[in-house]
Amino acid sequence: MRKIIGIGETIYDILFRDNQPVAAVPGGSVFNGLISLGRTGLDCTFITEIGSDYVGQYILRFMHENGINTDYVSCYQGKKTAISLAYLDQNNDAHYSFYKDYPNNRLDFEMPVINENDIVAFGAYFSLNPVLRSKVKPFLEYAKKQGAILYYDLNFRDNHAHEVESLRDTFRENFALADIVRGSHEDFINIFGYDDCSLIYNETSRYCPRLICTRGKQGVIVIDQEREYCFRSQTITPVSTIGAGDNFNAGMIYGIIKEDIMRNNLDFITHETWSRLIGYGIQFGTEACMSTSNYVSTDFARRFKIDR
């Protein structure tokens, strides 16, 4: 079976509503999607970092329980696992405060075995962070050389917007390594200053020919080699929007495997196939919004089970 290899941050999310804690769950942008994919039975590996504290050990067990290979997790002795406080507003959107305790030397790992047509998921500030770039970039280049399909989720929060200009070259490197780029309209505003998908595609298409724009209630726009497709989203009242985009990515990656999309047919995805891929993304993302969990439920995942 094709493997999914993710690289990204692991964090423990404590959710607040009306300034009272309502849930506490392991999280992280790539982490959330991998947990959902692991629950469907897909072969998932995660490259990440945790502390040696109780929270870190709990998260490690949680990954094991959900079918995630943790052979490439860096565990920092004497350090605490990163924590986020997520405050839900009246729309159940989250506003964050982060607390992190990292050593000077971070993310030491051996390169995992990657085969042609495996899928590598990366993104967020983790993939841009100058402190980690010397570890992340060689891994992505190796995955590209091995013939993997690289899925890049921008997931660029406004608290890093002041760094955009200094990160322009790194963004371009990531675009060039990616086979599919996905961003929300908030990501685009933070990076480009506007959210016009056609204009953004003009900026990114010289590096990557496929762009997915998720626009909440306004649906999803896909631009693939200058062909533009529009898809409707589902209308729901969310319990929490944390993990919505992460699980959209999970649904997309699930669909890539389910639809047998390989490197040799990546340039020939039809409108009908895109419709099914986006449909998986919307189903997974919508499901994640229906609870304070960051991932799809095990009951939901059971309906999409793929035997290894």
CATH class label: Alpha Beta
How many E strands? 14
Number of helical segments with 4 or more residues? 9
Task: Find the structural class using helix and strand composition.
Answer: alpha/beta
Q: Residue-averaged pLDDT, rounded?
A: 95
Largest sheet: 10 strands, mixed
Cα-based radius of gyration, to the nearest Å: 18 Å
Helix content bin = 25-40%
* CATH structural fold name: UDP-N-acetylmuramoyl-L-alanine:D-glutamate ligase
Count of all domains: 1
Strand content: 25-35%
Helix and strand string, N-terminal first?
Answer: EEEHEHEEEEEHEHEHHEEEHHH
The CATH homologous superfamily is termed: Ribokinase
Model regions low in confidence, pLDDT < 50 over at least 5 residues: none
Quick one: overall form?
A: globular
Rounded to the nearest angstrom, the distance between the terminal CA atoms is 6 Å
Which CATH architecture is right? 3-Layer(aba) Sandwich
What does this structure look like?
This protein is α/β, with parallel strands linked by helices. The protein has one domain: Ribokinase (UDP-N-acetylmuramoyl-L-alanine:D-glutamate ligase, 3-Layer(aba) Sandwich). Helix content is 33%, strand content 25%. The strands form 2 sheets. Strands 1, 4, 5, 6, 9, 10, 11, 12, 13 and 14 form a 10-stranded mixed beta sheet that branches. Strands 3-2-7-8 form a 4-stranded mixed beta sheet. Helix 1 crosses helix 7 and helix 7 crosses helix 8. The N and C termini lie close together (6 Å).
